[in-house]
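Hey, can you fold this?
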Amino acid sequence: MTTKRALLTLAAAAALALAGCSSKAAKGSIQKVAVTRGDLNTYVQATGNIQPLNLVSILPPVTGRVDKIVADEGATVKKGQVLAWMSSSDRAALLDMARAKGDAELKYWEDVYKSTPIVAPVNGLIINRNVVEGQTVASSTDLYDMSDQLIVLAAVDETDLGSIHLGQQADVTVDAYPNNSFACKVIMITHEAVKVNNVVSYYVKLESAKAPAELRAGMTANINFRVNQYPNALLLPSWAVKGAQQATVSVMVKKAGDGKDAKPQQASVKLGDTDGSQVVVLSGLDEGDTVVVSSLSLPDASSSTSLFGGPPRMSGKSTGVAGSSPKGH
């Protein structure tokens, strides 16, 4: 009974809101919106993180003791570069005995029995150093972790996957530096599905030719895949057509050049893509035309709009006007 009463109350409130808006519209509550030109870009938004493209773990060639650390975390190294020196278990024991006999004896055995170098197997970045000088290590001890290249790994909803392709450009930010956007391109779309928050998604790998030096593995990334670009397009605010898109709607319009006292005429307008804020006008209007908008509704408006004519919520796909860099969700 309580639920039914609440529903009746909500219905009554909606009816009053409609009646109020209709009353205002009847009294001439209208707005005028000019048709403008501008650039509009559409995006598919996704979240992900920064990860190594290939993670290389460096293990010691022998069991023994780490004598000297040469390279530390964050260092960019070349293949074959010495990262550390270590002694095998036999050499470590021999040097300990020689050290007890004095510096001359120690130096003799250090020259005769050379230490073993730990070298970088690939070009890349050291992202972890897991040992310290003097530490005893086994052959299974992970001394260093190296990344040959940091990439962006994005989780893309299956409903948006059709808009993603190899070589596609994207704008990326990380939560640590939200105002620093950098360009990436898609290098791989995985075939295996994963569930992220109970939504079927696919991982998309992106690389950047000029990745910021501040990037660190594990950072949270916000990715805006560039889908469509509309340069110098005719645009209307989305609210002016009550969120309708990729449809034909009827509007009242005053054509550019008409006299001051000319009355608006009805026009059939074909709409294209939207960025949630603006919508592309494909035909039916010209730059400088003025669209007369009722405060409540328009003929043929999208049935998915809200009570007060806000743009419909867009699932997964979002967009931004050229020059902006919307943040992903």
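Oh, and this one too while you're at it.
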Amino acid sequence: MNQGRILAVCRSDSKGEKKQDIGSGELVANGGLRGDAHAVGGHRQLSLLAQESIDKMVAMGLKVGPGDFAENLTTSGIDLMNLPLGSRLRIGRTILLEITQIGKECHARCNIYHQAGDCVMPKEGVFAVIKSGGTVSRGDSIRVVSA
């Protein structure tokens, strides 16, 4: 599973709220998704979560979808959480990402955790820096170029 598709491009105006699918957006090199509350640079410029991970929560009875886990990009067909740190991903022709973190510590339990007793983002969410930017849109290809 080294190639997949972008299913959603999500952003939020404020931290701590779920993101809305905007269909397409601009990824800024060394920044993040333009207009997103989390676009502050650093080593977690962009968050990605596989639809396959979201499907695990749906199977537990939750009504969740893209953006509900505060991810910027929802993907399908690519095994994000098993990529080694430093892996590079190409989206379309111009965008290049580098994986910097897999999973994250949740300091406060989110609504999803309280509903299901579990959440996929802390274990399966992936964070990246944007090496070269461009426009990302629902339906774009995403592939591993180095792992």
